[in-house]
Design a protein that fits this description.
By secondary structure, the protein is of the alpha+beta class. It contains 10 helices and 6 strands. Bound molecules: heme C.
C-alpha cells in the first residue's frame, strides 16, 4: 500500500513541475513585448523555431532572392530543401533554383569566387554551417546592425562584425541608418574622469521598402532558415521527440498495469 502511494506522487510532481515551468515562462513572454533598445543589440534574440514551416519557407525564398547571389549552401541539395520544407519541385524550379541548375544539385551561388574576392576583398563564406559556427542570435544581430559609414569602401559598417566586407544589401528593405553615439564620463584607472563615446541608437536617414516590423520578420525568417540548414535533421528530430514521449507515457501506463497485476498475487 505504501509503495502504491509513492507511485501516485509521481504524476502529481510532474504536474507541479509543468506548472512551475509555465509560470516561469510567462514573464519571458510578457517581456518580449517591450523590445530591447538599439544599444542592447547584443541581447537581441533570433527566436528560431524549426517547426514553423511557413517561416522556413519564407526564409528559403528570401535566401534565394537576397543572399544566393553571393553565398552558397554547399552541403544541401535543392531537392532535400524541397522535401524538408514542403516546397513542391515545380515551385522550387519556378521560383528558387537559378536557371541552369537542377533539383538534384547543391545550392551553389552563381558568383565566381575569384570575382568575389576582387570585388569585396574577401570571398563570401558558405553559409551551410554558419548558424552552428556562430550562433543564430549572432546572425540576427549581424543582419540588423548594418549602418552607413562613408569611411568604408562598401559605404557600410556593422556593429556585430566591425569592418565586415559584406555590403549592406538589406538597406533597400530596412532603409539606410546611421549610428548615433553619446558621450559618457567614466573614471579611468588613475582616478581621472575620461570621456568616452558609446553607441546609443540607430537613426533611419532614408526609409526602405519594409516597416521595422516587416524587416524584423524578414530577418527572423532568414535566420530561422539558416538555422535549419545548419542541421536539417532538426525538424524531423523535434517531431520524433513528441512520439518518443508519447510512447514512454504509454509504456509507463502498461508497466503500471503489469505491476498492479503482479502485486495482486503477492498479497
Ligand atoms: C553582394 C554580395 C553579398 C550578398 C548579396 C550577401 N552577402 Fe553575406 N557576405 C558577403 C561577404 C563579402 C562576406 C564576408 C565578410 C567578411 O568576412 O568580412 C559576407 C559574410 C556574411 C556572413 C558571415 C559573417 C561573419 O561573422 O563571418 C553572413 C552570416 C552573411 N554574410 C549573411 C548573409 C545573408 C543572410 C545574406 C542575404 C540576406 C547575405 N549575406 C547577402 C557578401 C554578400
Amino acid at each position: 500500500m505504501r509503495i502504491r502511494a509513492r507511485y501516485r506522487v509521481v504524476p502529481a510532481l510532474l504536474l507541479v513541475a509543468a506548472l512551475v515551468a509555465g509560470v516561469a515562462g510567462a514573464p519571458r513572454a510578457l517581456a518580449a513585448d517591450d523590445a530591447p533598445s538599439d544599444a542592447d543589440w547584443q541581447s537581441w534574440k533570433a527566436n528560431t523555431n524549426v517547426t514553423d514551416m511557413a517561416s522556413l519557407q519564407r526564409g528559403a525564398r528570401d535566401f534565394a532572392g537576397y543572399c544566393l547571389g553571393c553565398h552558397s549552401l554547399k552541403f544541401e541539395r535543392w531537392s532535400r530543401l524541397g522535401q524538408d520544407l514542403d516546397i513542391p519541385e515545380a515551385l522550387l524550379v519556378k521560383d528558387l533554383i537559378p536557371p541552369g541548375e537542377t533539383p538534384a544539385g547543391y545550392i551553389i551561388s552563381p558568383m565566381v569566387e575569384s570575382d568575389a574576392e576582387k570585388w569585396f576583398g574577401k570571398a563570401p563564406p558558405d553559409l551551410s554551417l554558419m548558424a552552428r559556427a556562430r550562433d543564430p542570435d549572432y546572425l540576427y544581430q549581424y543582419l540588423k546592425t548594418f549602418y552607413v559609414d562613408p569611411a568604408r569602401a562598401t559605404g557600410a559598417n556593422n556593429m556585430a562584425f566591425p569592418q565586415s566586407a559584406m555590403p549592406d544589401i538589406v538597406s533597400p528593405l530596412e532603409g539606410l541608418k546611421i549610428a548615433v553615439y553619446k558621450t559618457i564620463e567614466t573614471r579611468g584607472p588613475d582616478g581621472q574622469m575620461v570621456k568616452e563615446q558609446v553607441f546609443d541608437h540607430f537613426k533611419v536617414i532614408a526609409p526602405g521598402s519594409m516597416t521595422a516590423q516587416q524587416f524584423d520578420q524578414f530577418t527572423h525568417d532568414l535566420v530561422n532558415f539558416l538555422n535549419y540548414v545548419g542541421d536539417p535533421q532538426q525538424a524531423t528530430r523535434t517531431s520524433m521527440g513528441v512520439w518518443v514521449i508519447l510512447f514512454l507515457l504509454l509504456f509507463t501506463w502498461v508497466a503500471w498495469l503489469l505491476k498492479r497485476e503482479f502485486w495482486k498475487d503477492v498479497k
